Amino acid sequence: MQMVHMTAVGGPEVLELVDVEQPKPGPGHVRVANRAIAINFHEINERRGQGHTPELPAPMGSDFAGIIDEVGAGVEHLKVGDRVVGMTLRGAYAEKTCAPAVIAIPIPDGVTEEQAASCPVAGLTAHFLLHDNHVGPDTTVVAYAGAGSVGCFIGGLGQRIGCTTIALVSTADKAEIAKRAGYTHVVVYRDEDPVAAVTRLTGGAGADLVLDSVGGPKFEQSYDLCGVDGTVVLFGHAAGDPSPALLLSFLGKGRNLGLRHYFLGTTLATRLGEILAAFESLFAAFEDGDLYLPITRMPLAEVREAHRRIEAQETVGKIILQP
Fold first, then answer.
1. CA-CA distance, 120 to 276, in Å (whole number)?
2. Is the bond leading into 57 cis (omega within 30 degrees of zero)?
3. Which of 107, 160, 219, 315 has CB atoms 3.0–4.6 Å from 116's, for a disulfide?
4. CA–CA separation, 226 vs 133, rounded Å?
5. Nearest to residue 122, comparing CAs of 305, 295, 249?
6. Three-state secondary structure call for residue 96
7. How far from chain centre, in Å, is Cα 140?
8. Angle between helices 275-287 and 124-132 (to 10 degrees)
9. Nearest Cα to Cα of residue 59 among 96, 27, 30, 28
10. Domains, the chain, ranges and CATH?
């Protein structure tokens, strides 16, 4: 079968489509013939050498959906032919992928495989960012990259909660996507200063919660978007890691601000019992028509071009690879 390997640290050119033996599911695992494979930004960061670099060459990808074609010993609640969405540490960029049966989640009839494959990293991150920060109807949430995959989930889930959501996007086209995703307000940050815009939109109160997937040298802006007692959650590093000085700059703001860092892997490792219910919540939102997530389908063989487009901020929603 075919699988994508990361052969070195670098640009998209280090991704190679190689022929490998198809995996065999061990006890408690299932093997899935993939129909939809999601690309997540942490895979681009890994390819660029930001964070942990695996022993190379290495498989890539964590999120996939398809049809079970083999079941390992001891698996009784799933069978060959079931549609499931799965997660793996690496190896989703492939024609077939094995996963623990406990996190191979059946896909309901009203959800497509592309929608399901978008849920593990992007959907679960949005779900827990809102849930764990106790977002309710009276909460004002600002989200960076409002037209991206996590951003679209935040817009739709926020609308279901009834909170006020403000998306930050780079272009007018992305603003239209964020509006369709359910945001209350959208700010094109190249046209208007985000802090001034959020101050205006909140009547001077500022945001209760800022969800920052960008980080980097402008991270301090997230504190300035907050009102008194506001919280910034850093859950991505698209622009790199903020400096220690920027991370600690909230101490001088004098507004009782909070700072959190969110890593989905910790939630998966420590709260596995909550994952099925979270998936069911995401599936229900898709079935109810409350989630708008643009999906671009590309062949697995075009993985380099898919990475290039995401890295160049040319995409909205989610790119799905198809073997």
1. 11
2. yes
3. 107
4. 14
5. 295
6. strand
7. 21
8. 110
9. 96
10. 2-118+293-322 (3.90.180.10), 122-265 (3.40.50.720)
| Tokens at 33, concatenated | 């013939």
Place of tokens 């920052």: 212
Q: What angle (nearest 5°) sits at the alpha carbon of residue 307, between those of residues 305 and 311? A: 115
Whether the CB-CB separation of 62 and 97 falls below 8 Å is answered with no
Q: Are 101 and 30 in contact (CB under 8 A)?
A: yes
Q: Can you give the pLDDT of all 323 residues of the chain as single tens digits?
A: 999 999 999 999 999 999 999 999 999 999 999 999 999 999 999 999 988 899 999 999 999 999 999 999 999 999 999 999 999 999 999 999 999 999 999 999 999 999 999 999 999 999 999 999 999 999 999 999 999 999 999 999 999 999 999 999 999 999 999 999 999 999 999 999 999 999 999 999 999 999 999 999 999 999 999 999 999 999 998 888 899 888 888 888 999 999 999 999 999 999 999 999 999 999 999 999 999 999 999 999 999 999 999 999 999 999 999 99
Contacts of 203 (CB under 8 A, 6+ apart): none
* Integer Cα distance of 194 and 183 in angstroms: 15
